[in-house]
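Batch manifest line 102
LIGAND: phosphoribosyl ATP
JOB: complex structure
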Amino acid sequence: MTLNDLFATIQSRKGADPDTSWTAKLLAKGPAKCAEKFGEEAIEAIIEAARGDKQALTSEAADVLYHLLVMLAASDVTLDEVLTELGNRQGTSGLAEKAARQ
Ligand SMILES: N=c1c2ncn([C@@H]3O[C@H](COP(=O)(O)OP(=O)(O)OP(=O)(O)O)[C@@H](O)[C@H]3O)c2ncn1[C@@H]1O[C@H](COP(=O)(O)O)[C@@H](O)[C@H]1O
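JOB STATUS: finished
ARTIFACT:
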C-alpha cells in the first residue's frame, strides 16, 4: 500500500454512498469537519509520542496519514501537489528556508 494508492481510493469515495464508506461519510461533511478530524488524530499521535508508546504511535500515525489525505481531498489539494512542494524543498536546508522567510 502506497500513499498514492490510498489517496486514489479516497478520491474515488467523493460522492460515493456514505452508508457503505467511512471516507464518503467524512468527505460529505465538508473540509472543515475533515480538518477537525485530522486535528483530533494528530493530537492522539502527539500524546502517544510523548508517552513513548511506539505501538500506539504507529497506529495513531496511520490514522494521521489517512485523515491528512482525506483533508487534502476535501480541500481539492492533490497528494502530487504536496509532493511537488516537498520536492521543491529538496536540497534546501530547513535553516536556509527559515532565513529566507524572515
Ligand atoms: N486507512 C483508513 C482508515 N483509518 C482510519 N479509518 C477510520 O477512521 C475512523 C476514525 O476513527 P474514530 O475512532 O475517530 O471514529 P469514530 O469515533 O467512529 O468517529 P467520530 O464519532 O469521532 O466521528 C474509524 O471509523 C476508522 O475506521 C479509516 N478508514 C478507511 N481507511 C482506508 O480507506 C479505505 C476506504 O475506506 P472506506 O471509504 O470506508 O471504504 C480503506 O480500505 C482503508 O484503506
